[in-house]
Automatic annotation (TrEMBL):
InterPro entries per UniProt: GlbO/GLB3-like, Globin-like_sf, Globin/Proto, Hemoglobin_trunc
Protein name per Swiss-Prot or TrEMBL: Hemin receptor
Recorded family membership: Belongs to the truncated hemoglobin family. Group II subfamily.
Alphabetized UniProt keyword annotations: Heme, Iron, Metal-binding, Transport
Annotated source species: Corynebacterium aquilae DSM 44791
């Protein structure tokens, strides 16, 4: 059985998705400052590796970074509803740039569901529960 990763075009599709996202992040005033301005390519690689691995592609993330531990890796950033919404907005715009013949509706919905779940999981700040660095 073909993996999700291979079904959607493999490396090329994930490279396109992540590059489109990072093109937006570089210019963003809210979450752009959270990213390493001296390592844009590295940040892009890490997200692409993570997504590829999650969807059945190469295990490059684990080989280079170990277990993803997303909450731990993002905990030092203040991530509230605004940050989550902006991240999703930019990811959605990038996802929307991928043609339907490359990413059909069912695969697109699965990717989007994953993005929403991860973004919601990473929220670590609210008025009721402020982040220590907020």
């Amino acid at each position: 059985m073909q993996s999700f990763y291979d079904s959607v075009g493999g490396e090329g599709t994930f490279r396109q998705l992540v590059h489109g996202f990072y093109t937006r992040v570089r210019e963003d005033d809210l979450i752009g400052p959270m990213y390493p301005h001296d390592d844009w390519e590295g940040a892009e690689d890490r997200l692409r590796w993570f997504l590829a691995q999650y969807w059945g592609g190469p295990q490059t993330f684990n080989e280079n970074r170990g277990h993803p531990r997303l909450r731990m890796r993002h905990n030092h950033f203040v991530i509230g509803e605004k940050e989550k919404d902006r991240w999703l907005e930019m990811m959605k715009a990038s996802l929307d740039e991928i043609p339907a013949d490359q990413l059909d509706d069912a695969h697109r919905a699965a990717v989007w569901d994953h993005m929403e779940r991860v973004a919601n999981m990473l929220i670590n700040h609210s008025e009721a529960f402020p982040h220590p660095h907020a």
